[in-house]
Amino acid sequence: MMIPEDLAANLKKEFPSNEEKIRFFTAPGRINIIGEHVDYAGGIVLPAAIDFSIRIAIRKNQTRKFRIYSVASKEKIEVESITYDPKHAWVNYVYGIVEEFRKLDFISDFFDLVVWGNIPQGAGLSSSAAFEVVVAFALSEIHNWNLSKEEIALLSQRAENHFVGVNCGIMDQFIISTAREGYCISLDTESLEYDFHKMDLEGCEFYLIDSKIKHSLKDSAYNERRKEVESAFQKIKRYKSSVKTLYQVELEDLDNVSFGLSEIEKKRAKHVIGERLRTSKAIENLKNGNVQGLGEILFECHSSLSKDYEVSCKETDFIVHELKMEEVLGARMIGGGFGGCVLVLDKVGRKNILFEKIKTRYFDKFQNELKLYSFKVSDGVREI
Q1: pTM of the predicted model over 0.85
Q2: Could you confirm whether the keyword Magnesium appears in this record (predicted)?
Q3: Which of 49, 116, 128, 289 is deepest in the core (most CB within 10 A)?
């Protein structure tokens, strides 16, 4: 973990001759317990922040330049005005935030910024959303703009949608902005109403197994799924004008031939609607301390993501299957799909021995290594 003193040393080394006060901010990664691929269909999600993070040091400068340095890539960017940078994709998250503030007539002073992070890239733990949120929160704080955490989340989502060009939902930015240590939130992505839920797992724990696979289908398939979900909803809405989102449709509606749904649209809609039922059960199980019931729902969710939504892959399917054979309480792929991490729920004390078993079998089948991530449920974006 890079401490503020190390961030400050990097800032002073890369951008000397500036006596402005340095401030430090951090934003966490996230997991989503249940409610996968429904945040763009008006669904309820159950995310929590984790103690992997993106950290920045920032100060205003008098150079009339935005000066930005990445500790990881050792790339230094200095620009007088903001335009999309196709050569340095990571810096567009910063630019997008500055641009969204400008649209609100919040004009940023020029600044020096150093970024460091330990959120694994490509693992589906939302490193990009954490970067957006920490920059947005930092700029709001150093300029005394006083945006709420909810406003920070929405602005960060707009930056990714409009400037970066990724049509993401609101979940990642929202949990990273609002999270509390030891709690997950149930977030209605249609109304943005949310509640905190204490994660009391009674001798059990969550952890992550990274498949270390990122199939190239991910981005194109994500956009395809969004189109399929929207198409299914529009066909149903012609006959059921009372529903505002696909998430509100009932499973039996999918067999109504007058809707004219294709088989693909039925499968996609079945996942979204089924996820509503699973999420409701998961929240009840969490409230009641029924960890075993929560685990069973994770397995059901993975099956739906694999068979109906078709965003899993042979590697993550294999990991979940092997974990089920070893009688863990629950497991499922998380994130956009086509690789990334599997979220595991099991009794405390089994993790390391079990991981070594799965790791060996995985290597034998795919000639690839797995990675184990342990985590704690953490606070959201904040100054340090």
Answers
A1: yes
A2: yes
A3: 49
